[in-house]
Design goal:
Layout (H helix, E strand, L loop, with lengths): L2 H8 L5 H8 L10 H6 L2 E6 L6 E9 L4 E10 L2 H14 L7 H5 L3 H8 L11 H17 L13 E3 L4 E2 H11 L4 H8 L9 H14 L6
Antiparallel strand pairs: 1-2, 2-3, 4-5
């Protein structure tokens, strides 16, 4: 564990769920990855320029049911990245495993909600597993000649830490009555990572409110 993570951990900044998944990570891959890689249907590798963490995800898919039947991961990352990906693996492997289509729909907010939240400065770490999973899904669909099933990217990304797009902001405004930046942040967690996207996010929100002729709160 990194020194700053140790300090945060000892100050009890994490929920009991986060601490459980950090100390007892689910579906994590230890040691040599060769055998798992060879039997995997899709592999995704991503890294975060914000905190320097790396994440690799391996999936196996049942072609008859289109369900993910195995999810393994390994990381050089912090406690938040470990706990988040451990929780993600539980979401993916729930029951008989979720379908490829449903796996694409998992958002960082879903992971945060299941964890009971993360310290604001560590929220960006929750997207590592999410990104690596989608990369593995795209890898699987490409390898099996199903490129047409790869969903298009959701608009322009405004918040790269949490992958909140313009489409996500529009959905918050239209479908969930968001009128202020504070409400938008509460709903999407936008700008709770590095915070650099806040001016852009505020501009997008104001533009959408004007386009839909809605009054800001």
């Amino acid at each position: 564990m990194k020194n700053n993570e140790t300090d945060a951990f000892t100050r009890w900044l994490y929920t009991d769920i986060v601490k459980d998944h950090f100390t007892n990570p689910r579906n994590v891959l230890f040691g040599d990855e060769t055998e798992v890689a060879e039997s995997s249907d899709g592999i995704g590798l991503v890294g975060s320029p914000v905190c320097g963490d790396m994440m690799k995800v391996f999936i196996r898919v049942d072609p008859e049911t289109d369900r993910i039947v195995d999810f393994r991961w390994k990381t050089f990352g912090c406690a938040s990245a470990i706990a988040s990906t451990s929780m993600l693996s539980e979401i993916v492997m729930d029951g008989d495993g979720i379908t490829v289509e449903d796996a694409f729909k998992i958002r960082p907010q879903d992971i945060l909600n299941r964890l009971g939240g993360l310290p604001e400065k560590k929220i960006h770490c929750s997207v590592l597993g999410d990104k690596a999973l989608r990369a593995a899904l795209r890898d699987y669909l490409s390898k099996t000649g199903q490129e047409e099933r790869i969903p298009p990217e959701r608009g322009r990304t405004v918040c790269h830490c949490l992958e909140v797009t313009e489409d996500d902001i529009e959905d918050a405004v239209v479908e969930h009555n968001v009128r202020t930046f504070e409400d938008l942040q509460a709903r999407t967690k936008i700008s709770t990572g590095c915070g650099e996207c806040k001016p852009d996010a505020e501009l997008v929100l104001r533009r959408l409110l004007k386009e839909y002729a809605l009054r800001a709160g």
